[in-house]
Structures are given as structure tokens and as C-alpha cells.
Design goal:
The chain is α/β, with parallel strands linked by helices. The protein has a single domain (about 1-280), classed as Divalent-metal-dependent TIM barrel enzymes (TIM Barrel). The protein is about 40% helix and about 15% strand. The protein contains 9 helices and 8 strands. Strands 7-6-5-4-3-2-1-8 form an 8-stranded parallel sheet. Strand 4 (about 100-105), helix 4 (about 120-140) and strand 5 form a beta-alpha-beta unit. The longest helix has 21 residues, at about 120-140. It is globular, with a radius of gyration of 18 Å. The protein starts with a strand and ends with a helix. About 40% of the residues are buried.
Length: about 280
């Protein structure tokens, strides 16, 4: 396995300005990373230009862009046509970057107010919205990796559901719905811990070879905190060997760094994250 990181997570500065793709990727390269996720900020007007800038920077610094992430609309609730336009653009961007995995949140279902959550209707609705883009992804030879989902009960009571895919069975059913080996799983360790608890390692092993990419972060107190590994409660000495047992030999990709660190700390932070990710890669 190799260590990787979300390079675009370091784009926003504390003063509200943005680092260029070259600056972000150089920070990752200087820290020792050789693989990155590049997921553009699709809300910025120059995101398309940033794709080319990221490709050129990766070539300059000897970095492999190995995965990307599609936009996520569950919370934003942008108009459906706008969201689907962004989905299509993210697929084309992934193709242009030559990534191996494009990650999707298969979770875009909002029942009408007062209507009980219906998993069957959720699957039908989400499939109709997202299937064309997932199918386009795999037609390019890119894995469409459905990410582990968490239930945060947003806008509903604590005993009600708001998200589809938060159970292992629903995630598996979503992948199998496509009948295509290139529709795979992005194992988000932080989300899986919140969703599966003491069955985390067991479900990881069940997902097995369908895992083609990862998101790595830590948490505690039942919150999706995106901490550096070892700063939360995840049992990495158990989880990483379980991942190895599936035959996985891809990247462990740190998904964090969204806190807009000052310039005086950013290089040290990315360097520490690289050291921690390499430590995880060394666990047998």
C-alpha cells in the first residue's frame, strides 16, 4: 500500500484566499507524498482551469493523481439539473486526469416532508439520478467507487432516518445494483466506524476485493471529525491488517486538512500527516 492525501483540501487559506494547484501539490510533494486525490472545488469559477493546472503540477513534482471525488449535493440541495451538470463535469475531469477511482456518495434522496423514509424508494430515486454518470465513469475504465455513508439524522428526529446507504446491507446492494465489477467501494474508515461500530473490521472483510480506494481519518464521541489517525478511537492495528487481508494494495488516502491552517503551520501539518500515513502503511 502507498500513502496519499487530498491535495485540494489544502487550497483554502485562513485569510479566505486560495492556494493554486501548483502550491497545493508542491506542499504534498515536499512532505513526501507521491500520490494524491485531486477533487476540484466545483463551486469556483476557475475549477476547469484548475484541472489542467493540477495535471501539470503533478507531472512537474512526480505526483500521481490516483483518485477524485464527485460533488455531493445532499446538504446543499442545489437544483437537480445543476447537480447533474456538475456530476457530468466531474466524470469528464476524472477522465482528463487519468484517475483510477472516482468516488460517489450514492445518497441523494430526500423524502417529502411528513413522508416516512422508504429505502426502496431511496434506491430507485438515487439510481435514476446517478446511474448515467456512474455508467459513464466505468465506460472510461475508471472505477466508480461508492463511499461508506453515515447517518447523521439531519433535519429529522434522532430515531428517524435521513440517509440511504448508512447500513452495510444498503451499501452492498447499491454496488451490486449495477452488475459491474468496476462499480466498487471507497472504504471511508471514519464513516465506517460511525456506521458499523464494533463490526467495522468484520464488514471491511465482507466488502473484500470490491474496495478499490480509501478515505482515512479518525474520530471519537460519535462525530465525523476527520482527525489525523491516532487522534481518535479507531483501532488501526486491527483495521489495517483486515484491509490487507482483502488483498487491497492501493492507496491509504488521508481525507482531512479542512481547517484552513495558517501558512506558518501548513507544511509541518502535511509533513506530519505523511509520516502518520506511512506509519499506517507499515502496519502488518
Amino acid at each position: 500500500m502507498v500513502s496519499a492525501t487530498f491535495a485540494a483540501a489544502f487550497a483554502k487559506k485562513r485569510n479566505g484566499e486560495f492556494r493554486t494547484p501548483d502550491e497545493c501539490i508542491k506542499l504534498c510533494a515536499d512532505a513526501g507524498f507521491t500520490h494524491i486525490d485531486w477533487s476540484p472545488n466545483y463551486g469556483r469559477p476557475d475549477w476547469k482551469e484548475d484541472i489542467g493546472r493540477a495535471i501539470r503540477a503533478a507531472e512537474k513534482y512526480g505526483i500521481t493523481i490516483m483518485q477524485s471525488h464527485t460533488p455531493y449535493n445532499f446538504y446543499a440541495r442545489a437544483p437537480l439539473d445543476h447537480f447533474q451538470k456538475q456530476l457530468g463535469e466531474s466524470v469528464e475531469a476524472a477522465h482528463e486526469m487519468g484517475v483510477k477511482n472516482l468516488v460517489f456518495h450514492f445518497d441523494e434522496y430526500h423524502p417529502a416532508p411528513g413522508t416516512p423514509f422508504d429505502p426502496d424508494e431511496a434506491m430507485k430515486t438515487i439510481y435514476e439520478i446517478m446511474a448515467p454518470y456512474i455508467e459513464k465513469t466505468v465506460s472510461y475504465g475508471i472505477n466508480a467507487a461508492l463511499e461508506t455513508i453515515i447517518e447523521d439524522h439531519i433535519r429529522v428526529k434522532s430515531d428517524e432516518r435521513s440517509h440511504f446507504g448508512g447500513t452495510f446491507e444498503e451499501l452492498t446492494a447499491s454496488i451490486e445494483r449495477f452488475h459491474d465489477d468496476r462499480v466498487t467501494c471507497c472504504w471511508d474508515f471514519g464513516h465506517a466506524q460511525l456506521s458499523y461500530g464494533d463490526k467495522h473490521a468484520e464488514n471491511l472483510l465482507k466488502m473484500g476485493s470490491r474496495i478499490t480506494c480509501t478515505h482515512v481519518h479518525d474520530n471519537y464521541y460519535g462525530k465525523d471529525l476527520h482527525l489525523l489517525p491516532y487522534l481518535g478511537n479507531l483501532d488501526w492495528e486491527r483495521l489495517i491488517p483486515a484491509l490487507r487481508a482483502t488483498g487491497y494494495d492501493g492507496a491509504l488516502t488521508y481525507e482531512g486538512g479542512y481547517g484552513c491552517l495558517p501558512d506558518s503551520l501548513i507544511a509541518e501539518y502535511i509533513g506530519l500527516s505523511a509520516h502518520i500515513m506511512n506509519t499506517l502503511c507499515d502496519i502488518k
